[in-house]
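[Discussion] Sanity-checking designs against the backbone

I'm trying to build intuition for which residues belong where. Below is a structure token string of 243 positions. I'd appreciate it if someone posts a full sequence so I can compare it with mine line by line.
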């Protein structure tokens, strides 16, 4: 069977990695695949992406990089994603991956005019009948850390989620490609590690790191999303029907 590809666009914080590993490990665990192999390509280190036809599905990770800076590796990955959507491939973009997917298809990405969002957050979903997000509650509890957002969706995008800090928190393109601004692979422990790592930045922007850290809560919603994406890709690759 073709592998599911994790497109790694950055690394987690060193102090978090020392305790818990990195993005690709958490995503692997959340996907809970039973038959498909998983491969990782580190595009931020110059590793080349394979032909999209050679993979069963794609998950694009988060990153400390900024899509708006349009680094060479990032622009190349954005073009690849445009082709992957046209294929059509099964795609899930997470945080930076969400923004990169929107950018690659003609949307606009930049600094969030409402400022940094970090911590355990709630996202209002309008996705009852969506193949992926329909398994989540109408108000999902998830983890988030970002300063850039999708400012305008690409043409044809179906909005699926929003909150007060970001009206473009989740979307779908076609029937097989999704972007989510939040991190479904994070748990509360990882989220607290990010708040510790960004403590000085948060305080310098007028935020309260201690309060944000105390408010972190675990939730099954992120792993529900990842597990459902893994289920969809695995069923499609095996030729099984999906519910």
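Best answer:
Here's mine. Compare freely.
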């Amino acid at each position: 069977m073709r592998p599911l590809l994790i497109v790694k666009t950055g690394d987690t914080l060193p102090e978090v990695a020392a305790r818990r590993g990195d993005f690709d490990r958490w995503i692997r665990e959340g996907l809970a695949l039973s038959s498909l192999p998983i491969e990782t390509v580190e595009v931020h280190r110059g590793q080349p992406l394979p032909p999209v036809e050679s993979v069963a599905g794609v998950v694009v990770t988060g990153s400390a990089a900024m899509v708006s800076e349009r680094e060479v590796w990032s622009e190349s990955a954005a073009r690849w994603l445009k082709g992957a959507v046209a294929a059509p491939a099964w795609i899930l973009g997470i945080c930076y991956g969400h923004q990169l997917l929107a950018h690659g298809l003609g949307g606009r990405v930049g600094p969030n005019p409402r400022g940094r969002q970090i911590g355990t957050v709630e996202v209002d979903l309008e996705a009852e009948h969506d193949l992926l997000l329909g398994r989540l509650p109408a108000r999902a509890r998830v983890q988030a850390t970002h300063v850039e957002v999708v400012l305008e969706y690409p043409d044809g995008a179906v909005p699926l989620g929003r909150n007060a800090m970001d009206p473009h928190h989740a979307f779908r393109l076609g029937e097989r490609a999704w972007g989510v601004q939040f991190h479904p692979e994070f748990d509360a422990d990882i989220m607290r590690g990010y708040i510790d790592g960004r403590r000085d930045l948060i305080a310098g922007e007028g935020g309260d790191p201690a309060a944000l850290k105390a408010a972190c809560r675990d939730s099954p919603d992120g792993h529900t999303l990842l597990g459902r994406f893994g289920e969809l890709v695995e069923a499609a690759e095996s030729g099984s029907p999906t519910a």
